[in-house]
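Incident log, structure service

09:12 report received: a user says their structure output differs between two submissions of the same chain.
09:20 pulled the input from the user's history:
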Amino acid sequence: MDIPPSGLSRRGFMGGVGAGGLALGASLMGHAGSATAASLIDVNTVTTPVSSVQALPSVYYLTNVRLETGFVEEKKAWLDTPVLTHTRTELKTLRIASGAVAEILDAKSAVPSDAAVYDAQGQLMLPTFRDMHIHLDKTFYGGPWEATLPTQHGRADRVAQEHELLPRLLPVAEERTAAMVRLMHSQGTTVCRSHCNVDPVSKLGNLEHLKASLKRFKGTLDSRIIIFPQHGLLASDSTGLMREALRSGGVSYVGGVDPTSFDHAMEKSVDTTVQLAIDFNVGIDIHIHEPRATALPAFNRIMDHVEKNKQLQGNVTFSHAYSLAELSRDELKDIAARMKALDVTLASAVPLGRSAMPLRELHEAGVKVICGTDSVMDWWNSFGNCDILQKAQEIARLQYASTEYEISRTLGYATGFVTPLNEKGEQAWPKAGDEASFNLLPASCSAEAVARLPVRNAVFHKGKLVHGAVPKAA
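09:34 re-ran on a clean worker, output below:
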């Protein structure tokens, strides 16, 4: 029998791994004969990303930045035609000034002797990520672990659960939101659209806390708020609360949820939502999870309103819209053409376990597709990590070929389709004058970043470092 250095048998040593195993392991590492045991680790204390990073000057140089410059095409003996095999990159020096990319210089270009210079260490520069459908106002993240409870009556049970949870979580809402924003930053996201509960339980409490939290991050996060009647606009008689929320200011969109299956009055629910948007000159972002029989009439009624009210064009989003996965190719083509004509956006959290959403088909049909991470460890879903690049990877695996070119195209789902190379392989980003919001990652190209999900070592928003670190150049 092997005897560990402590004198314990292997069985005895392994038996210590459990409720008190961490303390045992820690005490074994102390001085021999010590009677003082290490304290237990508090597993209810969640480690969230740090809130402070190094401050950079308003003007600085960033050397050894890896930028994509084109695709490489090669002829292979076993293939009839040349194929794209990898992405060409070059190291550059960037001058960042007043939140923008002021200059892009050759790597060997001299910089002023008195300039602040930082070293990107050959890491790839990618555009900032955008989480365009998330619920920052409610989460278990940042607090003790709680898994999603089972339901017997579907969404009704979740709403009942919110009656219990929302009052309990309101006092910690701001800190929970701040923890999620730091998590977003650590994943490379500096642009978001967040839904926010407006309901008879929390009333405007969640909205007040969300506004306060986002105000703390106004220098590191571009954010928009969607007020969301989670308990049903009509079902919970929340129209008055929604008007009060809109009058309070700081709201960019009015939300809604399943006008037929939840509000049981599609036309009235849709019409009320549209009227709120018109009255307060905001956009619409409506969750529709319903099947095609009820979802399509709702989509078309909303688009009828958009045709009559030009101010809504370009300012309406259908979120989730699972019914689009049920349509035939011709039916999808028809609704996509109408969405494109009226500039209606589709927002998706890339659901797994359902019929694959036709995101690629809609994007290639000219519909604006945006993605989000939706729930983050809350009572609706135990999962979620604020990683929108992971969502791009999921789309790549579901709907694209695993080739250099195809994977590189899926980066756009995470960046609002701002990509280093356009579809022809021409350098499109960054250009001098572009906003200096970007990520530095240890990857050789966009395709590798999507496929391997490398750590985001440095995240910048308008020239300001918001997560990670960059060393000073030698």
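09:41 both user submissions now match this output. Likely a transient worker issue. Closing.
09:42 reviewer note: Residues 1-33 have pLDDT under 50 and may be disordered. DSSP finds 14 helices and 16 strands in the chain.
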